[in-house]
């Protein structure tokens, strides 16, 4: 692991451009028992317990009290970008960050902020074992890429010149496919192939999408893979959905990773779960236990922090096992403390 210190110098001057979402999240915990003069409120600890409560009220009415904890930046782009920027990458965000001015929730991000639309609004219900997002799908009038370019004229150049392109939240943006296609057509396809540069993708929760839609987006990722080294990052739920819809019902994570690489020509597939992380590359399969946090302070944004650290590790030139270990340590610190850690604290947590 001593090689990590030498690799850190490689990120100097590396540029990362991220698109295209942006939400302001209200973080809340559903109340199970209302506070009294003598006892504090109690919360639903698990998604299953909350779900059972709703099931029991089927055919009736109920109300759910929310203990609002804070209002904060949300969405894949802001969380991933904050993570990567805090680690030291030069990050440009082209997203839905507020109009006419950037929303105050995003102002402390250590990134270059370029907004083309108002931020979405979401409520994140926090539980000990995960989170449930409630949000309306954002909409854009007219051609989405034209709207991006109208507000951010340098958008194509920012993607073309980046050492790492990160495109995230395909599932929750109805116009994401069009924007991802435009990035390829305008900022990647016209230029020579360079596999020392990267294109990093996070589909987000794709269970609501059809097999045909998944086929289309992964075929597009295969086109990116002809020009840059592609990394597809999936959580367990997303990986199993891809396996079920596209790989004949494959349910073993290592089979899904290998199958997606082979079928769509992707160089790397990264699958992160609560208990393990798998990275399938041309060098083979890396599998490590995830640093499980028994008492999480926050789970919203955990996957994005994992992805932000993965992007940093890519540009720092970490080897496969080091990348996985670094991203796991970074995400575990975030979940355990509720704060985005910096590089020094992450390396300390790794014993480096």
Architecture blueprint of SSEs:
Blueprint: H1 3-8, E1 15-20, E2 23-33, E3 42-43, H2 47-56, E4 66-74, H3 76-87, E5 90-95, E6 112-115, E7 120-127, E8 130-135, H4 144-151, H5 155-161, E9 164-168, H6 176-188, E10 198-202, H7 211-224, E11 229-235, H8 236-246, H9 253-264, E12 268-272, E13 276-281, E14 284-289, H10 302-315, H11 320-337, H12 343-350
Parallel strand pairs: 1-5, 1-9, 2-7, 5-6, 9-10, 10-11, 11-12
Antiparallel strand pairs: 2-3, 2-4, 7-8, 12-13, 13-14
Summarize this entry quickly:
This protein is an alpha/beta fold and 352 residues long. It contains twelve helices and 14 strands. It has helices at residues 3-8, 47-56, 76-87, 144-151, 155-161, 176-188, 211-224, 236-246, 253-264, 302-315, 320-337, 343-350; strands at residues 15-20, 23-33, 42-43, 66-74, 90-95, 112-115, 120-127, 130-135, 164-168, 198-202, 229-235, 268-272, 276-281, 284-289.
For the report, how would you describe the main beta sheet? 9 strands, mixed
Instruction: Kindly report the average pLDDT value.
Output: 93
Overall structural class, as computed from helix and strand content, comes to alpha/beta
The SSE order reads HEEEHEHEEEEHHEHEHEHHEEEHHH
Query: Which percent bin holds the helix content?
Result: 25-40%
* Strand order across the largest sheet: 6-5-1-9-10-11-12-13-14
Total strand segments: 14
Cα radius of gyration in angstroms: 20 Å
Low-confidence stretches: none
Strand content: 15-25%
């Amino acid at each position: 692991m001593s090689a990590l210190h030498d690799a850190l110098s490689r990120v100097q001057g590396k540029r990362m451009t991220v698109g295209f979402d942006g939400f302001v999240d209200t973080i809340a915990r559903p109340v199970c028992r209302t506070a009294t003069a003598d006892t504090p409120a109690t919360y639903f600890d698990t998604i299953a317990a909350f779900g059972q409560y709703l099931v029991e009220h089927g055919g009736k009415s109920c109300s759910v009290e929310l203990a609002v904890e804070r209002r904060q930046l949300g969405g894949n782009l802001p969380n991933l970008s904050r993570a990567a920027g805090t680690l030291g990458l030069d990050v440009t965000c082209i997203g839905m960050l507020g109009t006419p001015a950037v929303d105050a929730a995003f102002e402390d991000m250590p990134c270059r902020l370029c907004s083309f639309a108002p931020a979405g609004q979401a409520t994140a219900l926090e539980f000990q074992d995960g989170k449930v997002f409630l949000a309306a799908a954002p909409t854009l009038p007219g051609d989405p890429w034209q709207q991006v370019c109208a507000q951010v004229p340098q958008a194509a150049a920012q993607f073309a010149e980046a050492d790492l392109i990160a495109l995230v939240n395909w599932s929750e943006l109805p116009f994401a496919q069009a924007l991802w296609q435009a990035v390829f057509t305008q900022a990647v396809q016209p230029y020579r192939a360079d596999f020392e540069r990267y294109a990093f993708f996070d589909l987000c929760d794709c269970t609501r999408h059809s097999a045909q839609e998944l086929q289309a987006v992964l075929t597009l990722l295969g086109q990116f893979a002809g020009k840059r080294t592609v990394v597809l990052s999936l959580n367990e739920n997303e990986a199993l959905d891809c396996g079920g819809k596209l790989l004949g019902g494959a349910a073993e994570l290592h089979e899904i990773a290998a199958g997606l690489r082979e079928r769509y020509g992707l160089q790397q597939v990264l699958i992160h779960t609560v208990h393990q992380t798998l990275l399938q590359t041309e060098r083979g399969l890396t599998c490590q236990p995830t640093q499980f946090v028994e008492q999480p302070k926050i789970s919203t944004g955990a996957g994005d922090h994992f992805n932000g650290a993965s992007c940093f590790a890519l540009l720092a030139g970490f080897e496969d096992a080091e990348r996985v270990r670094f991203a796991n340590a970074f995400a575990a610190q975030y979940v355990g403390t509720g704060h985005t850690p910096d590089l020094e604290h992450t390396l300390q947590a790794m014993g480096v």
